[in-house]
Amino acid sequence: MATITSKDGTEIFHKDWGSKDAQPIMFHHGWPLSSDDWDAQMLFFLQHGYRVVAHDRRGHGRSAQVSEGHDMDHYAADAFAVVEALDLKNVVHIGHSTGGGEVARYVAKHGEPAGRVAKAVLVSAVPPLMLKTEKNPEGLPIEVFDGFRKGVADNRAQLFLDVATGPFYGFNREGAKVYPGVIQNWWRQGMIGSAKAHYDGIKAFSETDQTEDLKAISVPTLVMHGDDDQIVPIADSALKSVKLLKNGTLKVYKGYPHGMLTTHADVINPDLLAFVKG
After folding, report:
1. pTM above 0.85?
2. Which CATH number characterizes residue 257's domain?
3. Most exposed: 1, 152, 197, 247, by fewest CB within 10 Å?
4. What's the pLDDT tens digit per position in 154-165?
5. Which residues are catalytic, by number?
């Protein structure tokens, strides 16, 4: 397997497809998945002549199941370790859900300071802050995330099946076309990862305030979100993020779910391509 070692000694699995002379696009996956969740996008962009790179977050997929470091700072540092190891420049970073938070922290703290990032895309992403607080009254109450923690601790196999079967892809909506293979693939990706990483990661994606990250980003940034996202509600994420970005563009998809990259790849992929090329 292709791995690099991060600064704290964690082995990070990654994929690197396409010509080394082509512009690189790096993909950052959501919780509790792996780089496999980007299959439809990686093949699409590879066929359009790009170099495509994706890694498994620490504790997820085929990366090392370490005990510590399951927070946005380590996630971003690990991504930077991959970028440096592969010497990627002029990179477009695309992040989904928790991966969107990773992209925001990465671009703000590593990518722009190092001069290695060209553009960013936040898809159904968690920034600026998911948790309901005094300053963020529109957020979700802590009990929602405690419920996820309990599910991971008690029976994550069932939790992962329930999430994929229901709200993640909008398969619980009346008239939705359900793809059993998509559900099984989500479950497979989740169960490969570490329960410790998944448990700790809930705090990372729900309680990390990324307001300052978004304010620090100056490269062109596309914010894409479905208005029927049952996992990361649009009102407290995309609609706020685009106002904090210096150079942000918002694209809202009517009726699309959290997992729209999979269920509506035929629409999302060309939109991503247009932004990358634009």
Report:
1. yes
2. 3.40.50.1820
3. 1
4. 999 999 999 999
5. 97, 229, 258
